[in-house]
Design goal:
The chain has a domain at 56-129. 43% of the residues lie in helices and 12% in strands. It has helices spanning 21-31, 40-45, 57-73, 108-128; strands spanning 78-82, 89-94, 101-105.
Length: 129
């Protein structure tokens, strides 16, 4: 009876795995130009980092259009837009065949809460005065 090592039958190079949609999205995001890091608080308040000037609405709309053209050329399901009521940038993952929104960041609920808080903000100030 002879005992042999089973290691001789194993492949020497790694077996390629089929890429998942998440892998494709991660590669796409890694190809985007890096931006300077800002604190989450400044991103939420919409204040620019390092004391820079706030971009105008037209500049933001042009940037969003450019981003959408770039993403579309990669056959990526992401869509960037600006919420009309809050002025915040919204990222949507859209099914290209049905145009159904799969994921939205920030969500519709968060946007509606932000709109309600903006309306209430004026009431709180008026009541104190």
């Amino acid at each position: 009876m002879e005992i042999r090592s089973a290691g001789g039958n194993l492949p020497t190079s790694p077996v390629p795995q089929q890429s998942q949609p998440q892998d494709k999205l991660a590669r796409t995001i890694s190809m985007l130009p890096e931006q300077t890091a800002t604190s989450p608080a400044s991103q939420m308040q919409g204040t620019p980092a390092a004391g820079g000037a706030q971009p105008s609405r037209n500049e933001v709309e042009e940037s969003v259009a450019t981003l959408n053209q770039f993403i579309k050329s990669l056959n990526n399901p992401m869509l960037f837009s600006i919420d009309d009521d809050t002025g915040k940038t919204v990222v949507k993952i859209v099914d290209s065949s049905t145009q159904e929104v799969i994921k939205q960041i920030p969500s519709e609920e968060i946007l509606s809460i932000a709109k309600a808080l903006d309306k209430l903000k004026g009431l709180f100030i008026e009541q104190k005065a």
